[in-house]
Every structure is written in C-alpha cells, then in structure tokens.
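Our preliminary data section would be incomplete without showing what the modeling component actually yields. Below, a chain of 565 amino acids is followed by its predicted structure, encoded as tokens that our downstream tools consume directly.
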Amino acid sequence: MSETLIIPDDLETCQQLLRELWEAHRRLQQIHAELLATCTSMQDSQEKLQQEKATLEETIKSLMHRLYGRRSERLPSSPDQLPLDFGEGEPIEVVPDVSADEAIVEEYQQKRRRRRRKKPLSGRFPDHLPRRTERIEPELPAGVQREDCELIGVDVVEILDFDRPNLWVRRLEYPKYKIPSQPQLKIVQGEREANLIPGGSFGFGLAAEVLFNKFGLHLPLYRQQDPLTQLGWVPSRSTLSQIIANAAELLRPLYLLETQRILASAVVNTDDTPVTLLTPGQGAGSRQARFWIYRSNQVGACYDAFAFTDDRTRAGPDEFLKDFQGTICGDCYSGYVNIEDVTGGRIVFSACNAHARRYVHNAREQQPQLSSQVLALYRALYDIEERGSRVDDVARLLLRRRESVPLMRQLETLLDGPLARGLLPKSKLGTAIGYLRNHWDALARFLSDGRLPIDNNEAERALRRIAVGRKNWLFIGCHEGGERSAVILTVIASAHRHDLDVWAYLRDILERLAKGETALELLLPDLWKASHPQQVRTFREEEREQRGENRRYQAAKRRLESLSS
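Predicted structure:
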C-alpha cells in the first residue's frame, strides 16, 4: 500500500516543509561527500600499500639474489640473437674488427692442446726441497741374512710433509775491551745493531710475520697468539700491537714515496669502503669510518695507496688530492661529481660505467625491452675495450672514436626515447636511467682519452682486502690505528700487486729502513722485484696470463660467431 503525499494548504507550513527537505538534502550531500572522500582515501591507501608491498617484495628478492643468486653481470651469448631495433631512425651498425680474432682463437686452441698433451710429473716435487731419506727394509724369511740377498732395484716414493715453523733466539754478544796502552779509551765495544723497537728484543722476521698475518692473511692479533704459543712463546696482544705500531713508523717514508708517485700520475682510480671505528665515551661508542684507495696504472707508479678518514665527507679526498693534477676515475660520489668546478679544472672526473650498467642489470625485469637494449650496447662497448686493452693509448683512443662513439650516441638517443621517458622516476629502472642521464658527461669522458679506463673495477677489486679483513678483525680501535693500517696496507698491497713474496719483502725493507736506508727508490716493489727475482711468485703471473688469454679467446670467438650468423 503506497503512502499518499499530503501537501499543506497554508504557505507557512509549506515553507517550513521545504526548509526541512533542503536541510535533509544538504545532510545527504555532506554524507555522500564524506563517503566519497573515505573511498578515495581508502583507494589511495590501497595503492600506497600495493606500492610498498611491491617495493618490499623487490627488496626481498634482491637480498635473496645477493645471498644465493648469480653475482656475475655477464649475459649469455647466442648466435641466434637478432640485431636490436631501437625504433628511432636508422640503427647505427658498428662492425667490429675481427682481423686478429682467428689468430687468437687458433693460438689459444693450440696452447690448450699442448697443455692437455703435457704429462704431469706425478709424485715429483721441486728439486730445491730438502729430502730426508728413510730406507724401509723388508722382513726376510727365517735363517736368511741380508748379506745373502741380491739387490735388484729400489722403488722410490716421495711424500710431501710439513713441519711447524720454528721460533729461535738470536743471541748477540758484544764483548767489551780495555786497552792498557790507551787509557783515554775506557771501553771498546761493537756498535749495537738496529732493532725494530729501540732497545727491544724482536727481530724483523717476527715483525714481518705479524704484519703479513694480519694485513695479508687477515688474521687478527688474538688469533695469532695461538700459533705463536704453540711454537713456545706466549705474546700479549699489547706486545703484538707495539710491533705493528713501530713497523708502521718505519714504513711511513716508503708509504709517502709510493703516494707521491701515484699523485704524479695523470690518471688515478679511487674508491672507498666503510669500516667500524671505536669511539669509547662518545655517542654509541662507535661510528662508521672509511678506507680510501688510490690506484695508478702508470709505469713507475703501479702502486695501491690507502688512506683512512673518520667519515665520508669530501675533506678526506680533498686533502689527499690537494697536489694532484689530472683525472680521477670512480663512482659518482658527491665529492667527485663537481670536483672540476671546485678545483678550477685542476682535477677532472671520469665516472665508472660498470656502476651504470649494474643498476640497469639489477632492474632488467621491470622493463625487459629497454634494459636489454642498454645492456646490449654496454656489451658491445666492453667488447671494444677488450680489443683496446692489447694496444697503446693512442691506438685505443682511435679505436674508441671509430667504434665506441657511435654506440654511446645510440645509447644517449635511447635514454631520451619514449620507453625511457615513460618510466616512473622512482622505479628501479627509472632510477638507473636517471643515473645515466645525470652523469652522462662523466660516463662518456673515457672516449676523449685513451689512458682512461671505461670503469673503476680494478680499484673495487683492490678494496676486497679491506672487505675480507673487516670480517675478521671487525673494527679499527682508534684513528691512529686506522692511519697505521693504511700505511701497512699500502706497502703490502703494492707488493702483492707485483707478485712478490710479501713476507720476504717486508723482512728485508724493515731491516734496511731500521738501519737508515736513504735510497727509498730501491725499496719500491717494482725495483725490489728486479733485484730479487727469486722472491717473485711466478705462478701468479702465469695464472693472470692464462685468465687474460681465456678472456681474449672467448671475446674473439663470440665476435666471429656473431659475424658468421
């Protein structure tokens, strides 16, 4: 049964009814607006939660990949890969020079066949190792004497064994004489030998062992106490610390000379890594400090110098590089990107393309088409760099101008294309593309100088000794300890770079420095290597040469396959 609408007859009652209806309508509109705002807010919150969820999932996936995934950025090659169409104008085709590739492949395959045919010396150990012969006689039958037997041969079996190293005490006697015929000379005695610690009792071999164990083998002092105790001497950690401190002071002049040689170079690679610095009584009791590496590839300056700072502000690099004039290569640290303006052009910055490529590689799943195009161009650029590594600086510059410049132009066009412009700026790939755009001039600087590397990977690899070390010694105890560590790390890393027996090198230069050696150039690792060929680890050179040959072979084979397909 429907209700009948009753309209009042008098005007005043009608007006009152209209006012009530208008007020009800206004309340309904207000409620509708509130519900609409609530729905919009809920929708925004839901979108925000979805974005946060996607970000967290991507973070978890990235962390899991870092823990368990493949760390290499190398992409598999396939002869079936078609040329990439970038969709904007005529594609620039760069045909690589493969004139020497067939010879490289053939030479590598011949060497591999010769190594396979080479018979290993089974059971043979180096002739210079001492032999301790033991003759094991058989049991003879009853009533048979050894004199009754005829020797028809001897089977020789060599077993490599090991004895613990030995501590020994060097006992120095200084006789004192009185000469009756010369009463003015009361006592005549030999001059005391130089020591690591003035008036101390520790030899240079022991100091070299402590330094090499901690900074070469990353063995903290408390772990060194056990093997030394097993050899018969129980050192305290303070004693070992004192040995390190005195050794660092002896090595400081050599450290300054190596640093001076590096800063005299035209190109220096640099990078940094964090380390925990203890600050008792200040704040949380510790803070994050930094180790910096400065590396040169110039002949006569092939050394690795380390520096220690309390923080990552640009004051540390500015102080170290105050006398440097040239180009520094590194990541896009804020203290470097505008260093040309800050120094008035004295220092120029060249950015690391491996960082830019890595950011795109890590975000390749978000936009496979764009990321694949960028990575393909970088692969072609690195292929050119592999060929350029076998020629001098001038030929390398000409090669880059002929082949790398067109690829970089194509990459720049790709970064301004619709696919790149359509990315969200804060997305992972959008951030990577933004990194390329923002630092383009520094990333392309290697095209103008054949001495500049395309990336900073060598400096990053050299910093691994810090990354491995801090997992063992965990922290730096004080600022002075960090500076001493930088001195010792510089000497050890530079010696390791020249494939030296680091222990023998440390022992020799410590003794010569303690005795007042003034010709510091003779103690530089490259010159010391020339005068001590028996202390060179030649197997390291052979391993490095084989790795280089394998890389050249793989690159040459890939280029030949790409042309044949």
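Residues 353-443 form one domain. Strands lie at 176-177, 188-189, 267-278, 286-295, 304-309, 326-330, 347-351, 475-476. Preliminary results of this kind motivate Aim 1 of the renewal.
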